[in-house]
Amino acid sequence: MNRLYVVESTPTVTGSMADHRLPLKPSAIEECATALARGLGVQLTGAAPSSSLADKQKWLGAVIRDLQQHRGRSLVVGRRPTAGGGSRAWRTP
């Protein structure tokens, strides 16, 4: 079974097809990705997590649990919305 989780600041076709969608302000997208990575055990350097996503912890926790349960069979893709574009992806080990 496949599941699609989407975090976005503007409604998209992909978001409309998602099983679970989390709309956030553009300024919170990177923090959400950082919280997700940390929740999956990725060691990150930089700023400590802030509490601006405190009300989203239930949603993030569900995504983290789902990814952990399907370790090695999951794909996380992110795109940084900059003028130059660019994407990032990682497969859960």
SSE blueprint:
Layout: E1 5-8, H1 13-17, E2 20-23, H2 26-39, H3 57-69, E3 75-79, E4 87-91
Parallel strand pairs: 1-2
Antiparallel strand pairs: 3-4
Low-confidence spans: pLDDT under 50, at least 5 residues? none
Average pLDDT score: 82
Distance between the termini: 19 Å
- Gross morphology is globular
Please summarize the sheet with the most strands. Answer: 2 strands, parallel
Q: In what order do the strands lie side by side in the largest sheet?
A: 1-2
Number of domains: 1
Percent of residues in helices comes to 25-40%
Radius of gyration in whole Å, from Cα? 13 Å
How would you explain this protein's 3D organization?
- This protein is of the alpha+beta class.
- It has one domain.
- Helix content is 34%, strand content 19%.
- It has 3 helices and 4 strands; from the N terminus they run βαβααββ.
- A two-stranded parallel ribbon has the order 1-2. Strands 3-4 form a two-stranded antiparallel sheet.
- The two termini are 19 Å apart.
Labels describing this entry:
93 residues, two-stranded antiparallel sheet, alpha+beta, 34% helix, globular, 3 helices
Summarize the structure.
Helix content is 34%, strand content 19%.
